Each structure stands twice: as structure tokens, then as C-alpha cells.
Amino acid sequence: MKLSAIALFISAVVAIPVNEIAKRTPPNIPTGASAKTMLAALTTRTLDATGYKRDLFPHWITISGSCNTRETVLKRDGTNVVQAIDCSATSGTWYSPYDGATWTAASDLDIDHVVPLSDAWKSGAGTWTTAKRQQFANDLTNPQLIAVTDNVNQAKGDKSPDAWKPPLTSYYCTYACMWVKVKNAWALSVTAAERSALTSMLNTC
């Protein structure tokens, strides 16, 4: 590597302090050991998507002032994010941990529901009230929402970990920990294939 390239690399690394990266991490991600304990406690189920509709999970509700959930997560997960008076992000830098890409336009990002709404419905949310489903779809307390590259999120769709994993294998542990934490927090179930995939991912921690 040439000296100029090394200097550029170093400047890029120090430009984002460790505490800044930590601030942008979704909250309440458990350790791998804790996630394994949580996973063992989840009930196993078979698939049932009967009656699912996305609008049964009202999302991107107003969180503060005129800022909705999407804009709140973009602010949280980005660096040097500037918002307009309507809370839309006009500039900033976002790192997508699923694929390792960095973006400077909010339009290149989706806010992923780590546990997709359809999967939640199959896992027990079909019996919830609409108000509870709204809370789930806008959950900022658990690691359920994260800003990621839009086409990566679209490739994921409503797939569970046995059918889709982040392109970066180095993120398997964190992703599995987030997934399990959300399912545990909301008392949602898993399929046998999902449990097996999560176990394998947690073994990379």
C-alpha cells in the first residue's frame, strides 16, 4: 500500500471515534452468551402467515416534534447528521453494518425491522392489538430498527436467518444477538430452522 493510501486510511479511521460508533449502535444488544440463553427460552412454532397485512403494523409514527421513527433512527445511526426543519436528513454519513457500505445520502438507506413485521406476525403478533403492533414496529428500546443499505434490506425482505444473513459474515454474531433479543423482549417464537441458523450464527461470537 502506498504511503498516501495509508494516510487516507488512517484519517478515515480516526474520523469516527469509537464512542461515536457506539452511540450509533442500536440499543440493548446482548452478549453472545446472553443471546444463547434467551434463544433457548424461546418457544418453537410452525409457520402461519394467515391474515398478515403490513398496514396492521402502523409504523414511522411521530416520535418527537415533527420527527418520525425513520428520521429518528437516521439521526441516531448516522455521523454529523443535519436535519431540515421537517426532520428530514439533508446531510450526514451512514455506515451500513450489514454490507460494510458507507453512504452520504439518506435516500440510499432503509430502516430495517431486524425481525420483519411479517415474521413477527407468524411468531405471535397476529394475536396482538393494533396498538401493540404499532409499538413493535416503532421499537427504539430494543435493537429492532437499524439504518442499512436500501437494496440489501430489500434483498432481505421478510426472511428469517435460516433464509437470509447479512452479506458481512463478521456481523453474524451481532445480527443474531439483535434478532434473539427482539424475539425475547416481545415473547415471539421461532421455527426449528430459524433456531438452528441462529445457533450457528451465535457460535461465531
List key phrases describing it.
205 residues, alpha+beta, 3-stranded antiparallel beta sheet, two-stranded antiparallel ribbon, 9 helices, 16% strand, disordered N terminus
Number of folding domains?
A: 1
Could you tell me the radius of gyration in angstroms? 18 Å
Low-confidence regions: 1-23
Q: In terms of structural class, how would the helical and strand content be classed?
A: alpha+beta
So what's the overall shape?
Answer: globular
Alpha-carbon distance between the termini?
Answer: 31 Å
The SSE string, one letter per element, is HHHEEHEEEEHHEHHH
Number of separate strands:
7
Residue share in helices? 40-55%
Number of helices: 9
Mean pLDDT: 89
Largest sheet, if any?
Answer: 3 strands, antiparallel
The share of residues in extended strands comes to 15-25%
Which strand order do you get reading across the main beta sheet? 3-4-5
Keywords: Signal
Protein name: GmrSD restriction endonucleases C-terminal domain-containing protein
InterPro entries: GmrSD_C
Task: Describe it.
With 205 residues, the chain is α+β, with helices and mostly antiparallel strands. It has one domain (28-44, 52-203). It is 41% helix and 16% strand. It has a 3-stranded antiparallel sheet with strand order 3-4-5, covered by helices on one side. Strands 1-2 form a two-stranded antiparallel ribbon. It has a two-stranded antiparallel ribbon with strand order 6-7. Strand 3 (78-83) and strand 4 (89-96) form a beta hairpin. Helix 8 crosses helix 9 (192-202). The longest helix has 14 residues, at 172-185. The model is unreliable at 1-23 (pLDDT under 50).
